[in-house]
Amino acid sequence: MIQEIPRKVRFGSILMHLLFWVLSLVLFVVLIFLTRHFRLQAMDFQTAINIIITLLFLAVSVYINLLILLPLFFKKRRYLLFSLLEMSNISLFICLNYFVSMAFEGKHPNFLNEMVAEFILVLMFLVITTLIKFTRDSIDLQDANLRIKEIERENVESELRALKAQINPHFFFNTLNSIYSLSLDRSEKAPELILKLSELMRYILYETRDDYVSMERQLDFLQNYIYLERLRTDEKIKIEMEIKGKHTELMIAPLLFIPFVENAFKHVVKEKDNPSFIRILFDLSHQDKISFSIKNKKYNFPGQVNGNSEGIGLANVRKRLNLLYPSKHELKISDTGDVFEVELTLELS
Questions:
Q1: What are the Cα distances from residue 265, in Å, to 47, 124, 233, 298, 316?
Q2: Tens digit of each residue's pLDDT (9 = 90 or more) over 208-236
Q3: pLDDT, tens digit (0-9, with 9 covering 90-100), for 238-276
Q4: Given this model, what pLDDT does residue 5 score?
Q5: Reduced to 3 states, what is the DSSP secondary structure of residue 186?
Q6: Does domain 188-347 have CATH number 3.30.565.10?
Q7: What mean pLDDT, rounded, does the chain reach?
Q8: Is pLDDT above 90 for 193?
Q9: Where are the domains of the chain?
Q10: What's the rounded Cα separation, in Å, for the pair 25 and 10?
């Protein structure tokens, strides 16, 4: 099947060329009848051969132009050399056709008029075939661009699905690890923790199938996650979540903010005698923009410079932002030593 497609394409192209030259032959004969008052009864073998040879010379000039001059000189912007060679191509046709006409019809009484007529004839064919070629090239280029865009769209969708698939196991792994630790300690928090986790799983498994979800559902998910984090930790961490504005109907890609929140909980200072905090702010005051920021007091592991180093979660969210909002987002990540801050702005218009 793969080999049949090029054959069909070549056959269709050859058929189009043959159709063009058959049509040209008909128009050429009609033109002779109209301009030279030629009668069909006067058509003989010699005249027919003369017409066919003239058409063959035209085909030679046309294909020299299409296959050699245009691709090798015109498209490479060597316009001066192209013009000189094109004039040589036209002169070749005029000379060959004139000498053949003399062989069949004898010397033409008006040499200048014959040269002008043949110049106009070959120039007309060159211009028409060049315009046809440029039109076909333009259509082929548009088709190729459409195919490229379709392939790019499919690649983007595949990559987004892969990134989303990476987010879910990464999130569940951290939470299940916490449940395992609590269950070993026979903590009374374990059942409630499992219940909250089931709610989060329901959201991730069913609602994130859509390309976009409302901010209202995203905020509910984040609040459940924060509640789960509060429940499973005994550390005194001051957690604040503020929501400005009321445009919770805005639609954005799912699971876009959770990597930042998860990263803050992962690297926040967890020493009881060391005051720690996580501050989350959503600004939903505008109908076409969402502003998000999260700040946490970070914990540096021994020998580690940046506590909130980018792991799988943050790396994935960067990729998703570049794919979903390539020119409509601004992400700033700052590290002041003991505080790690993320600011994200999304343009939805």
A1: 94, 76, 10, 9, 17
A2: 777 788 999 999 889 888 887 777 665 67
A3: 899 999 998 999 999 888 898 898 888 888 876 666 778
A4: 45
A5: coil
A6: yes
A7: 78
A8: no
A9: 4-147, 188-347
A10: 23
| More confident position, 321 or 308 | 321
Q: How many CA atoms lie within 13 A of 189 on its CB side?
A: 15
From residue 279, how far is each of 38, 226, 340 by CA, in Å? Answer: 95, 11, 11
Give the SS3 label for residue 243: strand
Give first-to-last CA distance, the chain, whole Å.
Answer: 45
Could you tell me if 294 and 288 are in contact, meaning their C-beta atoms sit under 8 angstroms apart? no
Q: Which two tokens stand for residue 164?
A: 């989303």
List, in order, residues 6 or more apart from 225 with CB less than 8 Å away.
200, 258, 261, 262
The answer to whether the CB of 316 falls within 8 A of the CB of 259 is: yes
Encode pLDDT of 12-25 as tens digits: 677 888 888 888 77
Q: Is 103 helix (H, G, I), strand (E, B) or coil?
A: helix
In sequence order, what are the residues at sequence separation of 6 or more whose Cβ sits closer than 8 angstroms to the Cβ of residue 163? 316, 319, 320, 323
Q: What is the pLDDT of residue 250?
A: 94
Residue 336, both tokens: 């002041």
| Model pLDDT for residues 45-86, shown as the tens digit of each residue | 666 777 788 888 888 899 999 989 998 988 888 889 989 998
- Alpha carbons 240 and 342: distance in angstroms, whole number: 15
DSSP letter string, 260-304: HHHHHHHHB---TTS-EEEEEEEE--SSSEEEEEEEEEB-PPTT-
Residue 252 corresponds to which amino acid?
Answer: I
Residue 254, C-beta contacts closer than 8 angstroms, at least 6 positions apart: 164, 207, 208, 210, 212, 213, 218
DSSP three-state, residue 250: coil
* Residue 258 backbone dihedrals phi, psi, to 5 degrees: -60, -35
198: tokens are 């089931």
Q: Are 293 and 281 in contact (CB under 8 A)?
A: yes
